[in-house]
Amino acid sequence: MTDSPIVGRNMGNMGKGRPKGSRNRTTAILKDAILKAAENAGKGDMVAYLTQQAINNPGPFMSLLGKVLPMQIAGDPNAPLNVITRIELVAPSGNSET
Fold first, then answer.
1. How far apart, in whole angstroms, are the C-alpha atoms of residue 46 and residue 67?
2. Rg of the chain's alpha carbons, rounded to an integer?
3. Residue 72 burial (CB < 10 Å; 0-12/13-18/19+)?
4. Which range marks the domain in which residue 57 is found?
């Protein structure tokens, strides 16, 4: 029974290809070109150009901002957030009974 084929992953292709998390070369080139174009449009000052776009085109700028902000915010595992829920009971008239 040793002649039967092994069922599972093809180990012959393991390790080939782009490392996980690395950027596609075309994507990196396009990103660099966009950044250079923004810098040129702002006459060497990309922040000035982006500020101008935020004022003149707030909708697309906010869309861009949403894409470049981190997708999730990680907290400190040694100092987790504590959630406190407080429930206040008030009389139906709105006056508190003491």
1. 18
2. 28
3. exposed
4. 44-69
Question: How many Å apart are CA 31 and CA 53, to the nearest integer?
Answer: 18
Please tell me the total count of domains within the chain.
1
Residue 75 lies in a domain: no
Round to the nearest angstrom and report the end-to-end CA distance of the chain: 85
Token pair in block for residue 72: 């999730």
Q: Residue 21 CA to chain centroid, in angstroms?
A: 14
- Cα–Cα distance for residue pair 21/24, rounded to 1 Å: 9
The 10s digit of each residue's pLDDT in 20-70 is 777 778 888 888 888 899 889 988 888 988 899 999 999 999 998 888 876
Only one residue has tokens 């084929």, namely 5
Q: How far apart are CA 3 and CA 76, in angstroms?
A: 53
Kindly report the CA angle at 25 between 24 and 30, in degrees rounded to 5? 100
pTM of the entire structure? 0.45
